[in-house]
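user: Here is a favour to ask of a fellow structure person. I have my own habits and do not want them to colour yours. Could you put it straight underneath, so I can go through it closely?

assistant:
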Amino acid sequence: MTDPSDGFTVENEVDNQTLLEDYVPGSSLASVDAKIAQLDAMFKKLCKSAGRALAFHLGEMPPPEPSPTSLIECATVDSMAHHLKTCKNVLVLTGAGISTSAGIPDFRTPGSGVYDNVQKYLDKYQLQSAQKLFSFELFQQDPEPFYALAREMKYPNVNVKPTIAHQFIKLLSDKGVLLRNYTQNIDMLQSQTGIPDDKVFEVHGSFRSGTCMNCGAKNDKEQLKEAIFSGKVAKCEEFVEGVICDGVIKPDIVMFGEALPQDYLCTISKDEDKCDLLIVMGTSLQVAPVNKIPNSVPRSTPRLLINREQVCTNPETYTHMSAPLFFFDHPDNKTDVFMGGDIDSSLMELTKKMGWWEELKKMDEEKEQKEEGAGGSNSRLCKTEK
């Protein structure tokens, strides 16, 4: 068939599916249509957010006010505990604070946080800020500073055990109410509890594997661990065109200056709309775009913050492009509840109110007995209860 408009000759007519498979083997029109629908929904959501942000910065939109409706009767721990027992889709957002009782420091706590204890690295490598140690730009120039810090922080360390907070998330999963856990942590502790992989989204990646920056070959956790604890930078041992590649292995974590996993926006966009309870634990909510999650769930959705201290409560410092805004002390608050202090102790209090405490304690004791052998249990939950 000849098309006179372009002078191009096509010997045989073929359908669109055949053409698609020629260019993208294994694809189908149905899968492409589904992907287009996902991208369209995501684009509309981004446009809506961008519109709100622009209006806010132009002075046309004030900070949000508390929702006039809520899925809980009142903003109290008791009401939140009652609601949690009836939930179907609990979204959990976690940060480094849930791993501190396992011996892993968080980043921003004054005195004990990572950013307050890396001065020797800043001096040694002549760096301007602690965050620079975690930048992709520096890693490309010199991976040694990051590997030295990982060595001191004992990443990846299989001897570190999950905390009560991790076990609580596992309990939510066992009860079939965990929609997903979005974790900013790279310590992989949630996976040690046995939470299904599809219920955990490691937003900032992990040390589970590494990728060669030269040939793209994958390396597993044990190879990374061996290099880190031997004081070396991991190098690729794959053969490329007959010679050892020797490229630098970058752990599969998301550094400053890198994009998040490709499916993050699509996944969180769907989860936010389903969520009937948001639990935020152990995070300062200073890192975007994860810190936008609390403001993206439906307005009537209850939000429980379990943290060492309150965060994101000042409307004067609020912007639509950065941190969320909680209404704990607002007279019209109907959705937000704060449980402060030690996270493990707060979870003990919450699960006791729900009647889940003995179940959570038994889960933790059984895991420790399995790991350490039969005998007396030294469960963290027993220590917390005392």
